[in-house]
Each structure stands twice: as structure tokens, then as C-alpha cells.
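Q: I have 216 residues here and want to know how they pack in 3D. Can you give me a structure?
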Amino acid sequence: MSFATMLKELLTGLATSFGIFALTLLFSLPLGLVVAFGRMSKNKIISAITQVYISIMRGTPLMLQLLVVFYGPYYMFGISLHPTYRFISVIIGFSLNYAAYFAEIYRGGIESIPKGQYEAAQVLCYTKSQCFGKIILPQVIKRITPAVTNEVITLIKDTSLAFTLSIPEMFTNAKAIAAAEKSMVAFVAAGIFYYIFNLVVATVMRKIEKSMEYYN
């Protein structure tokens, strides 16, 4: 296999990895906020359910969760799944897992805001939604950005776990090429691509964090 062909295969896998990365963030970030609200709910049942969900998602391997999401419908309900469900199950598994981590990050950020700010908003006749959207949320985003950045960078590397369900992302392609060529070149190239991917994301997140310095 020529070097150009190898790069083409890796870039094709990188596109799949990026798709997993982007879709996971698209679904897990808002879902994490919903879970965080459930975790902080005064309703003990809702709070307990979300606590159990977070505990399971954070306490079991992501690889195992992917297998349960993919094989669960068939073994538990006998449902025959379309081949496209393989990729969908990866997105579901990743989103559910990362939503739990983001939920705890959100919760920590929200609970770090002094209660006096809520009281001041009430004095100014803000509704609860206005108070949260205009006063609390911008500060929370500023405070949690470093923690979110760490999770986002971890997600980039975790996309390689999609190989569990035979999704041809970059790591899967690199393994196949390395086995066929009996060479480590594909792994080195994949490592460089992962590093560049991480560097770009870290730079973007750093700029986002810097743009919010006016909350200091």
C-alpha cells in the first residue's frame, strides 16, 4: 500500500471519528444540562433516578455501554436491527455516557454561584428563567469551560472505542493497515492526526474561554 493510499484510508476514518465527536457533543451537552437539573431537583424520585443514571454511566466502561446499547434490543426484545443502527448505537452510547459527566460539571458550576445572586434577581423582578438565562448561565459557562474542555479532549480519544462495534473510524483503519503492512507507520500517522485534532479543539476552547474573561 502506498503512503498516499494509507493517508486516504486514515483521513476517511478521521471523518468518521469527527462525525462521532460532533454528534456526541450535539446530543450530550444539552442532555447533560437536563440531567443536571434532574440531579438538583427537589423531587426525591427524579433526583434519585438521575443519581443512579449518573452512577451507572460513570461507573461502568464505555465499551460495555456501547455493547449493551447495540445488542440489548435484540437479546432483550428480539428486535432485528437495521445495519445503520450500528453507527446510531455508537452515538447513543457515547451521548448517554458523556451526558452523565457533563451533568456533574454543570451541577458543580450552577451550585458554585452564590445564592445572593438569585435573591438579587428576584428583587429586580426577574423570573426564574430570566435569572438563569441572563445572570447564572453565562457565569456557569465561564466557570465550567476548563472542565468541559478536558472532557471534550477525552472524547476525541474515546472515539477510537467505536471499533468495538466495527465502525471504521481512524483507529480501526490504522489497525487494519498496520496488520496488513506489518508496519507501525499507520499507528504513527494516526497518532499525529489525533494530536492535531486535539490541538485544534484545545485552541478553539481556549479562545472561547478567553472571550469570556469579562466575567472575571
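Q: Anything worth noting?
A: Residues 3-215 form a domain with the MetI-like fold fold (CATH 1.10.3720.10). The chain has a mean pLDDT of 87.
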